[in-house]
Amino acid sequence: MPTLLDADQTARVHASFDAQAFMRTLDARMTGLAAGQCELSMPIHAAFAQQHGFLHGAVVTALSDSAAGHAALSLMPPGSSVLAIEYKQNFFAPAVGDTLIARAEVVRSGKSVSVVTAKAFSIAKGVEKPVGLLVATMMTMPDAA
Amino acid sequence: MPTLLDADQTARVHASFDAQAFMRTLDARMTGLAAGQCELSMPIHAAFAQQHGFLHGAVVTALSDSAAGHAALSLMPPGSSVLAIEYKQNFFAPAVGDTLIARAEVVRSGKSVSVVTAKAFSIAKGVEKPVGLLVATMMTMPDAA
Amino acid sequence: MPTLLDADQTARVHASFDAQAFMRTLDARMTGLAAGQCELSMPIHAAFAQQHGFLHGAVVTALSDSAAGHAALSLMPPGSSVLAIEYKQNFFAPAVGDTLIARAEVVRSGKSVSVVTAKAFSIAKGVEKPVGLLVATMMTMPDAA
Amino acid sequence: MPTLLDADQTARVHASFDAQAFMRTLDARMTGLAAGQCELSMPIHAAFAQQHGFLHGAVVTALSDSAAGHAALSLMPPGSSVLAIEYKQNFFAPAVGDTLIARAEVVRSGKSVSVVTAKAFSIAKGVEKPVGLLVATMMTMPDAA
User: Fold this and answer.
1) May I ask the CATH architecture of the domain A7-142?
2) Residue from C113, C118, C94, C93 nearest C40 by CA
3) Where in the numbering of this chain does the Thioesterase domain appear (chains A, B, C, D) (predicted)?
């Protein structure tokens, strides 16, 4: 069972997500949040396609990275922000359908370094299909005073 | 010295790039192309920012991935397209300034699997700064007949 | 619940593992096997240490990679062998204690490309501690006739 | 042109390498060192083979990782040691022949985080062949007082 965040922590994670202009450009929303877990969803839009008309892989990465970062941020102390120092993305299948979902989970939470996985799924006619796996290394950055 | 492509190969690589709607959305252009090498450039626009106002890391990945894919495609036989099966991105510094550039180079070209690196740079007031390194595994996909 | 392999498939996976001289050098044994899953164990020996006396990270990778490869092989048709084309390893903590375990699971099984994760744990005084996560891309290689 | 290290820095890097028992087990030697660069070599020995008799991929990773770590260490201040927090390895071809070489170079040197690439080559009958590329994230660890 996911552990719920308190109201302050929830507000801080949402504030960080809401401040990402690129997530608004993608029309992404936060559809799930718990301690060390975050789910983001976005419509699959033709403006973000690659050369065969499927969603560009880097958009799968964008949603997965943002989900991973906010999953990590949910475990960080107040006055911190999160920075991805690197990630690795595997692609399983093209993302086709109407919706892309990324579900992230912290697998190792350290004081300065955390490791987070994010699985991406596309939904077509109500059926979810796995499309990728991201593993990210996130750093805790103290906000400038 | 880079090896020049012939007119047909050049046209095929450009056609693939021009077909990526997401690259148009990012306002990216192909600014360099040779055998096994590709350079892409885009303006750094506020619509693609993360929570601190810097360019979102996944946009650095998007430009680097597309440069890497088209560098690989430049070495593939006619009737092929390119598919990224996975990549790894390291970030060196935030991308600040007015322009993002990705320069990709094939480091291992195989019949079905190629490995490509792409270095990303941001330009502020005419000064280039390295911002990331991507390593991608690309597959040669025969076009459906 | 893991799905059991039949006797032929079990024999083929064991034969591949037994043929890895490096696994014998590490004194590694296969301690678990099911469809798409494999567990390997080895004693933590001073001959494989890094500069601080902990087990060298690349040994964690070796056991994880071999577990991942044999998890993938367990799902491949007879007459195939498995080849890692790339992997990514994250380290969580130094491996200290007397035993290293790697538990691998196929997360995407394709005809030619599979993706496998492997979690590594060290055991000290009977207590397991996570020490790393590997994500590998494995190819199915038809054996030469 | 590589920048030479002074005698103290050279001694510190060698001391770290000499303290890695696993490198002795592999019979690896440091065959090149400069500021931000390190080359290691080892004989290709049957005890480290995989199931087809080629050198096990994780041994390629081991030599590459150690070369990368010592390349990073060469730029770190006295009183530091180096820790790989993650790496990604691509394989180009099986390592066959009599010698394996790993050549590492720091591509981004930061106060706490560095990024290093290492290319591996096998030598058969005097001919070098590229066998892999590793990209590693290294952290600077202050030695305990």
Assistant:
1) Roll (3.10)
2) C118
3) 52-122
